[in-house]
């Protein structure tokens, strides 16, 4: 029978990538689009990292590496981690995957049984539920509250845990709303998890993009005694402007990493060798810290500008993000309004009409589990932010 699998039928296309695709097509057709859609830095990969890739090719480093990663990269990664977070992983406790996405896929595939539930607080990064489903598990969403800045509380977590719970995913700083858990908030959550037989997947991919002098702590450095339970997701994409290089890093017990390596050995094998060499050089270089710090300051200024401009638009509500590079904007007051007779019914129709009438691409909140919201990225120049937000203001003013 020529049927495609039921498992794949349950998977949705990434709505964030769909928006970028639509905006790119309109731009290619000559339209002047301001796109707040992409989840990636607008800065180029630092020059010295690109040079390291060229050097790798010149030296002929173009063959396979070991499945779990180039030894030099694993070494740089654990040293970099120890330098930043006073926790020493060994090199058999790290795996190099094709982006944080593959870290998550491998990690979940290694632990999930068919009836297992993975707890995901809402709003969530678009791919978590789909990766859970691909791995054969069931996403179970936990509602959070705006007054807690969408952060999960210990009571909410406790109430959600059942016999089917296999793991919980915590993302801080978060995509799509930039919330950030303080040490004491993390401690309260972990006290609940410590008493249960469940894993924690801590997605720390935006760890270096944190504003107003906030200090990031990795989950593992706060709870080294839970090392068998915790998997940390990180990677080169966001902090180092290397989204296209596809280098993700997973840190966990050697047992969990070995299972993930087994999966990777029969799927993608090692990550692109040249990208691994360049990443090894990047993480070992003192230059990286300064570049990341400088860029973070620029993001903070763009965030402040975005917050100021959004505050002047009637009908939009948002919380200034503590980290990452997104604003998650509540559009509920604009739902059921119309533009030239066309009604805004939900986040998807808002997104479509905004693109059609004012040539601005944003991501519908439904992609993150909340249909009264849109997400905009502020990884754009100040000029583009000003232009794009003034178009959103014009769109909102035209609604009746
Ligand atoms: N985790 C979060 C919260 C993200 O926003 C992303 C990318 O958008 C990723 C993980 C995966 O990034 P990559 O696969 O590029 O490393």
UniProtKB/TrEMBL annotation:
GO terms for molecular function: pyridoxal phosphate binding; transaminase activity. SUPFAM superfamilies: PLP-dependent transferases (SSF53383). It is an enzyme of class 2 (transferase). One of its GO terms (biological process) is amino acid metabolic process. Keywords: Aminotransferase, Pyridoxal phosphate, Transferase. It comes from the Bacteria. Its EC number is 2.6.1.-. Residues 32-392 form the Aminotransferase class I/classII large domain. Gene3D superfamilies: Aspartate Aminotransferase, domain 1, Type I PLP-dependent aspartate aminotransferase-like (Major domain). Its cofactor is pyridoxal 5'-phosphate. InterPro entries: Aminotransferase_I/II_large, AspAT/PAT-like, NHTrfase_class1_PyrdxlP-BS, PyrdxlP-dep_Trfase, PyrdxlP-dep_Trfase_major, PyrdxlP-dep_Trfase_small. Belongs to the class-I pyridoxal-phosphate-dependent aminotransferase family. This is Aminotransferase.
């Amino acid at each position: 029978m020529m049927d495609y699998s039921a498992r794949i039928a349950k998977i949705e296309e990434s709505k964030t990538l769909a928006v970028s695709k639509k905006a790119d097509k309109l731009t290619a057709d000559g339209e002047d689009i301001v796109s707040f859609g992409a989840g990636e830095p607008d800065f180029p990969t630092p020059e010295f990292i690109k040079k390291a890739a060229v050097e790798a090719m010149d030296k002929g480093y173009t063959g396979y590496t070991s499945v779990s990663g180039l030894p030099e990269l694993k070494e740089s990664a654990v040293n970099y981690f120890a330098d930043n977070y006073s926790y020493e992983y060994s090199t058999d406790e790290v795996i190099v995957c094709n982006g944080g996405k593959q870290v998550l896929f491998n990690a979940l595939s290694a632990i999930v049984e068919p009836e297992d539930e993975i707890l995901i607080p809402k709003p969530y990064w678009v791919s978590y539920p789909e990766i859970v489903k691909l791995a054969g598990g069931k996403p179970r969403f936990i509602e959070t509250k705006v007054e807690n800045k969408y952060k999960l509380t210990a009571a909410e977590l406790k109430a959600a845990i059942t016999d089917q719970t296999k793991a919980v995913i915590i993302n801080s700083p978060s995509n799509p709303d930039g919330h950030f858990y303080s040490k004491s908030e993390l401690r309260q959550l972990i006290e609940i998890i410590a008493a249960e037989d469940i894993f924690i997947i801590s997605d720390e991919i935006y760890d270096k993009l944190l504003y107003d002098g906030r200090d990031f702590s990795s989950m593992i450095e706060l709870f080294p005694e839970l090392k068998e339970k915790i998997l940390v997701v990180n990677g080169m994409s966001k902090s180092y402007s290397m989204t296209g290089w596809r280098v993700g890093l997973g840190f966990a017990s050697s047992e969990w990493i070995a299972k993930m390596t087994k999966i990777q050995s029969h799927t993608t094998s090692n990550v692109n060798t040249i990208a691994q060499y360049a990443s090894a050089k990047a993480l070992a270089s003192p230059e990286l810290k300064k570049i990341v710090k400088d860029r973070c300051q620029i993001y903070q200024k763009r965030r402040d500008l975005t917050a100021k401009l959004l505050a002047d638009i009637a009908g939009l509500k948002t919380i200034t993000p503590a980290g990452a590079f997104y604003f998650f904007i509540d559009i509920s007051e604009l739902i059921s309004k119309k533009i030239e007779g066309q009604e805004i019914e939900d986040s998807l129709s808002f997104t479509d009409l905004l693109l059609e009438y004012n040539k601005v691409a944003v991501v519908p909140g439904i992609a993150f589990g909340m249909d009264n919201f849109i997400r905009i990225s502020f990884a754009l120049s100040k000029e583009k932010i000003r232009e794009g937000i003034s178009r959103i203001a014009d769109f909102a003013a035209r609604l009746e």
